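Query structure, 90 tokens:
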């Protein structure tokens, strides 16, 4: 149960990073009649995509973290069940 809350927190932080990245990408655009050089700013071209990429990677880590933790719990449960069965057969 504790591992699922950790993975849930990781995924929530990742979603916040993705939303922040997309919000940093927004801004005024250029039209045919006027050019806005702000569309090529460092914030929109470098920082925002890095935040989005970090968010997506954290989502994958959060999903894999919960799968790894449940695998460990089931193997421990299987060992205890096998020990119980072994003690019953003796």
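Result returned for the query:
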């Amino acid at each position: 149960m504790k591992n699922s809350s950790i993975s849930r927190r990781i995924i929530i932080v990742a979603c916040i990073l993705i939303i922040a990245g997309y919000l940093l990408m927004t801004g005024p655009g250029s039209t045919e009649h006027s050019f806005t050089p702000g569309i090529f700013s460092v914030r929109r071209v470098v920082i925002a995509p890095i935040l989005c990429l970090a968010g997506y990677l954290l989502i994958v880590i959060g999903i894999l973290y919960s799968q790894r933790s449940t695998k460990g719990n089931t193997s421990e449960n299987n060992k205890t069940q096998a020990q119980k069965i072994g003690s019953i057969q003796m």
